[in-house]
Amino acid sequence: MPSMHKPPRIIIVTLLPPNSGVGVQTHVDGFLAWAAARGIRCTVASPYDHPRLMERVQGTLLARLRRIAPDYAGYQVRRLLARRLAHSLRRRSQAAGEDCIFYAQDTTSACVAIHCRNRMGARHTPVALMAHFNTSEAHELVINGLGREGGKLHRALVAAEEHACGGLDLLVAPSHWLLSRILARHPQLDARLRCEVIPYSIPETIDTQKRSQPELPATDVLSIGSCDRRKNHQYLLRVLHCAKNRGLCYRMVIAGDGPERTHLVQMAGQLGIGDQLTMAGHVPGARRMMAAARVYAHSAIEDNLPISLLEALEAGRPICAARVGGIPEIYRDGIEGFFWDLDNPEGGAERLIEILENSSTYGAMSQAAQKRYHACFTTASGYQRLLECLSDLLESA
């Protein structure tokens, strides 16, 4: 760690509500806990300082606008969140005084941080962005069916990325894959901006009692993630269906909620696997559920560096996922798990069967998974490296 007189004051800037349960929030909560344990002053600036007010205002906007103009509704809600975030960030930065760092968790938050820095005349306050998105926030909006390409919200997200990249002091990506996608869109950044790849870390500890007493009965397959188009849980149902046709009825738990949940339940019934599927909904601390599962399955059509796969490695669970995005940077085919083809559920069933029915394969992959985690993704190394990068910014400001 670079020599410095005292740790920096870090203000995490985010649009997310507390306890949102998504991977970004896992990163934020984990870093906050790690920093607090080491006496590092770290706070959060969020639009949700007054959560009930925000819920009422958003609810009114969404109820009225989503029926007639969902894209415009999303745009207006994001504008509202940005204004509230700016107010929160100004208060947090005034309380923190000098020598603080703005650590943004999305491009809109980065734009708010840059605007606040300029407006307050705090030229020596660095702004860093952790890129949590997949390819881009605008692209993810479209593939999840939450907006159309060229729509108002889509254009706003494209503009936010462009503006953020022009004012950042540090860009952090969890995977080499994502950084390469960003630099392909903004090639000028490679020469002007410090860019770092720092894989996600996961919180250091889980309550051991909760780990040993999982909330759900033992299951064969676990998948954690929002029920949306990008997560592509339909593929997992087809894999279970193919395995059942071979006489193997595996149980699966999907922990997550979202717009596709009802469709997944209906699809499971149509495929004749409804009794094998448990839709657990959103489960706080879903990482504990790894103890109840034998295999972790992931079916996203695109993913940056899913934290749930790191949690599976830590728990010693073999992984089945597609070779997309930053996933090949997490585990190796045939060692900690298998890669499967999202266009071939029959082949996916063969991979799953090989792990679950071959005890030597399962044992070897389970041991390899834990070794991989401790060699590449320990909490201390990830958060420490992030802190070093943020501290370097302040010292060079």
Protein model, in words:
The protein is of the alpha/beta class and 397 residues long. It folds into 2 domains: 9-201 and 379-396, Glycogen Phosphorylase B (Rossmann fold); 208-376, Rossmann fold (3-Layer(aba) Sandwich), CATH 3.40.50. The chain has helices at residues 23-37, 51-65, 70-96, 107-119, 137-143, 152-167, 176-185, 189-192, 208-212, 233-245, 261-271, 307-315, 345-357, 359-376, 379-396; strands at residues 9-13, 42-45, 100-104, 127-130, 170-173, 194-197, 219-224, 252-255, 277-279, 293-297, 319-321, 337-339. The strands form 2 sheets. A 6-stranded parallel β-sheet has the order 2-1-3-4-5-6, with helices on both faces. Strands 9-8-7-10-11-12 form a 6-stranded parallel β-sheet, sandwiched between helices. Strand 1 (9-13), helix 1 and strand 2 form a beta-alpha-beta unit. The radius of gyration is 22 Å and the shape is globular. It starts with 8 loop residues before the first strand and ends with a helix. 45% of the residues are buried. The model is unreliable at 1-5 and 207-214 (pLDDT under 50).
CATH topology of the largest domain: Rossmann fold
| Average predicted confidence as pLDDT | 88
Stretches where pLDDT falls below 50 for ≥5 residues?
1-5, 207-214
Strand content: 5-15%
Please provide the ordered H/E string of secondary-structure elements: EHEHHEHEHHEHHEHEHEHEEHEEHHH
What's the β-strand tally?
A: 12
CATH classification class of the largest domain: Alpha Beta
